[in-house]
Design goal:
Length: 249
């Protein structure tokens, strides 16, 4: 099956979503997602100017060969724009292969391995109490995992927190990146209190998620993880550390 056409479709249901469509001479086509939040049109340009012309005439069944060609053929490798574009091609080609085999793609990849998939809801609030109310609403809807984000005292705005209670969080509707005044110390002091409050109200069975949004260094992330452990497992007793005697001279 030769690739005879490839095109990018940009849709805007409130924000740009990018779809890649690859068509073969057999009439079978495949769909891949190329959305890169906040830099969607950069992927469109990379696909249209560099990737799609290189696909025409190639065998759509040689998925691994095409992936290696697109990845190694460019002098500049990796990066979110490049890898999003290649991923869209990869998904579209697998879609074609599954349709040609007349079976669901998961059958080609080893078959079904689970009956259900756990998903999470995004609960936000201007403060801890507001976030807890949103967590309760998601639990009532049946979510077993909830991502929690809340405002930080002393910080005017926090990325990931909805502007109004009960609303979904969406990035600012602007072509320019949002600017926020940030204070890591205030964040690290406050967020463990949110985790502890969620555990106290909803128990240990609820799966808690939280997005740092690239705000922390690896060391700071380690500090947050340790604080999270202490705040949510305060009732667990740990064995005392063994005392080590220094060898005598």
């Amino acid at each position: 099956m030769k690739i005879i056409e490839a095109r990018v479709i940009v849709t805007c249901p409130g924000r740009n979503l990018i779809t890649l469509k690859i068509v073969t001479d057999s009439g079978i086509y495949g769909i891949g997602d190329a959305t890169l939040n906040g830099r969607e049109l950069a992927v469109v340009a990379y696909l249209e100017e560099h990737v799609l012309p290189a696909l025409i005439g190639r065998d759509a069944q040689r998925i691994e060969d095409i992936w290696q060609y697109l990845y190694r053929g460019a002098y500049w490798r990796r990066g979110p724009v490049t890898m999003t574009a290649i991923a869209a091609v990869d998904v579209a080609l697998w879609d074609i292969k599954a349709k040609a085999a007349q079976m669901p793609l998961y059958q080609l990849l080893g078959g079904k391995s689970r009956e259900r998939v756990m998903v999470y809801g995004h609960a936000t609030g201007k403060d801890i109490e507001g976030c807890l109310d949103e967590v309760a609403r998601h639990v009532e809807l049946g979510y077993k995992a909830v991502r929690v984000q809340c405002g930080i005292p002393g910080i005017a705005t926090t990325y990931g927190v909805a502007k109004r209670s009960g609303e979904r969080y969406e990035p600012a509707d602007s072509d320019l990146p949002a600017e926020h005044v940030w204070d890591t110390a205030k964040y690290l002091n406050h967020v463990p209190k949110l985790f502890a409050a969620v555990r106290e109200r909803f128990g240990d069975d609820l799966h808690i998620l939280h997005d740092v949004h690239h705000r922390l260094t690896p060391i700071e992330a380690g500090r947050l993880g340790k604080a999270w452990s202490h705040s949510t497992c305060s009732g667990l007793k740990t064995a005392p550390r063994p005392r080590i005697k220094k060898p005598s001279a």
